[in-house]
From TrEMBL:
This is Pleckstrin. Residues 4-101, 244-348 form the PH domain. SUPFAM superfamilies: PH domain-like, Winged helix' DNA-binding domain. Major protein kinase C substrate of platelets. GO terms for cellular component: plasma membrane.
């Protein structure tokens, strides 16, 4: 019987020889993880057997890279993968751990029932804590704070987070709250906003989160933006990045000049209506943006300039109000449907 395919999609993988990070198409089956250079490739670049393997998440071996998890095979070979956002990583980690457990017990893969109450792992507990912190009525309040001639919108101080954790009985004291906050920072739920908090996050200290009134942070999927700069780039930051994040993930994008297809991380925001795209193997600076106000998005069955072996299936097209055409490919038909629905909503309601 052929192994059951459990999950597939784009992840960023660290090379075993050159140590470079590259976006790959990953397929998880009952007994292993295969990764391909392109989704359309017939032969994988490699296969990671899961029998006797272990998984660590979060993996903090790489200082400036968040959302990384590590698979160590029975032969002690390490493989590092990076997801594009927290929820995506948790889905991969949950299924890989389940596959490893089933192999150990000699059972077929089956997801656990959600009807019973089960003890959640720490990473998921942090996810629940994050959702409580974001509650509009009872969570951490997002403020407009001024510091060093700059105005930070939708943010809060490190001391505020620590005090909230204690007041809600999530921590017994400040040191315990500080450890929880550091976990939220390391997991990518919280992001540093100013120079002080960024220096703390990049330090090698056990608690990289700072319990200080001058250390500023923001929710990873909030409408954070900073004012007070003078360059064109910072004006762009102020205007385009103030919206709430509606959806994010990796898609295949066709280039406008060379017509080649590359994996890009996309973040969709609602007000103003923008979709920014990034190189998932590099930093947080966007490669470009698509203004979606008045745009049209539709599913398509082919792309005029694409060769059959380069691209296949789950395609959609965005036509902006300036009549610029963007061709994208989702990992699955369901994911394409979700992206189209989200973009359509934003294009009608966003500025």
């Amino acid at each position: 019987m052929e192994p059951q395919e459990i999950r597939e999609g784009y992840l960023v993988k660290k090379g075993t020889v050159l140590n470079s990070w590259k976006a790959v198409w990953v397929v998880l089956s009952e007994d292993g993880v295969e990764f391909y250079k392109k989704k359309t490739d017939r032969s994988p670049k490699g296969m990671i057997p899961l029998k006797g393997a272990t998984l660590i998440s979060p993996c903090q071996d790489f200082g400036k890279r968040t959302l990384v998890f590590k698979i160590t095979t029975e032969k002690k070979q390490d493989h590092f993968f990076q997801a594009s956002h927290v929820e995506e990583r948790e889905l991969w980690v949950k299924d890989i751990k389940r596959a490893i457990t089933c192999l150990q017990g000699g059972k077929r893969f089956a997801r656990k029932s959600t009807r019973r109450s089960i003890r959640l792992p720490d990473a998921v507990n942090l996810n629940q804590l994050y959702m409580l912190m974001k509650d509009q009525d009872d969570g951490v309040k997002e403020l407009k704070l001024e510091q060093e001639n700059r105005v930070f919108n939708h943010c809060f101080t490190g001391a505020t987070v620590v005090e909230w954790l204690i007041s809600k009985e999530k921590a017994r004291n400040r040191p315990e709250a500080l450890m929880l906050a550091t976990g939220l920072l390391n997991e990518g739920f919280l992001q540093p906003a100013g120079d002080l908090s960024k220096d703390g996050a990049e330090s090698a200290e056990q608690t990289s989160f700072l319990d200080e009134t001058k250390a500023l942070y923001y929710f990873a999927d909030s409408g954070f933006f900073c004012e007070g700069y003078s360059s064109d780039e910072d004006v762009l930051l102020k205007e385009e990045f103030r919206g709430n994040i509606i959806k994010q993930g990796c898609l295949l994008k066709q280039g406008h000049r060379r017509k080649n297809w590359k994996v890009r991380k996309f973040i969709l925001r609602d007000d103003p209506a923008y979709m920014h795209y990034y190189d998932p193997t590099k930093g947080d600076d966007p490669l470009g943006s698509v203004h979606l106000r008045g745009a049209v998005v539709t599913a398509v069955e082919f792309v005029p300039d694409a060769k059959k072996y380069d691209i296949d299936g789950n395609l959609f097209e965005i036509i902006t109000s300036d009549e610029i055409h963007y061709f994208l490919q989702a990992a699955t038909a369901e994911e394409r449907k979700e992206w189209i629905k989200a973009i359509q909503a934003v294009s009608k309601s966003g500025k």
